[in-house]
């Protein structure tokens, strides 16, 4: 029996390590993130990706971006009473991708579409500033990695957060970029139900 438990444990660790494999993601441990207070699992592969922005100043260094992600998580968990940070991943001005709720967990369960989608947040305000080419490259690379590792459907769709609720997120300039992508979905009615 002990041998079986040992095998199951090793299998779990190996599979857990594969979740962010080869995506170049800064793990929660690396940015000193808190563990979630509750977990709900997404059905994968996910078909919908929601792009949003933080509507905050950009962060440009590793230390500043890690601090910004910690601050966002604290606000989401302490003030908004979310289970965890409200994004699957966040992309800093340093073009690094930070693990939020990750590939397998529901980020914010308050809206029906969140149980069918991954939220990816670009740190900054993109009403007034253009995201950098490096941030867009990091976002595209993350999406490719999600498809390659079976987290995203190969025929996934991308929408702006503003299409699903009354917000200006992901900001006018970032919204204008993602609207040109082949994965763009104009009509989101089926996801609002």
Automatic annotation (TrEMBL):
Domain called N-acetylmuramoyl-L-alanine amidase: residue spans: 34-171
Peptidoglycan recognition protein family domain residues: 23-165
What the entry lists under Pfam families is as follows:
Amidase_2
Q: What InterPro entries would the database entry show?
A: Amidase/PGRP_sf, Amidase_domain, Peptidoglycan_recognition, PGRP, PGRP_domain_met/bac
SUPFAM superfamilies cross-referenced by the UniProt entry: N-acetylmuramoyl-L-alanine amidase-like
Q: Which CDD domains match?
A: PGRP (cd06583)
What is the protein's given name? Peptidoglycan-recognition protein
Q: Record the organism.
A: Samia ricini
């Amino acid at each position: 029996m002990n041998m079986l438990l040992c095998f199951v444990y090793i299998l779990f660790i190996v599979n857990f390590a594969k979740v962010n494999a080869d995506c170049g993601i800064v793990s929660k441990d690396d940015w000193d993130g808190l563990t979630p207070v509750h977990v709900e699992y997404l059905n994968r592969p996910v078909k919908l990706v929601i792009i949003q922005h933080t509507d905050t100043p950009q962060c440009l260094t590793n230390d500043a971006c890690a601090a910004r992600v910690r601050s966002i998580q604290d606000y989401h968990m302490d003030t908004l009473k979310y289970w965890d940070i409200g994004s699957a991943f966040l992309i800093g001005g340093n073009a690094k991708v930070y693990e939020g709720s990750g590939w397998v967990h529901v980020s914010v369960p308050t809206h029906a579409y969140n149980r069918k989608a991954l939220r990816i947040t670009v740190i900054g305000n993109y009403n007034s500033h253009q995201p950098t080419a490096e941030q867009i490259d990091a976002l595209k690379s993350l999406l490719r990695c999600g498809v390659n590792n079976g987290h995203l459907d190969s025929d996934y769709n991308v929408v702006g957060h503003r299409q699903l609720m009354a917000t200006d997120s992901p900001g006018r300039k970032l919204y204008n970029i993602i609207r040109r992508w082949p994965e763009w979905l104009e009509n989101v009615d089926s996801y609002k139900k």
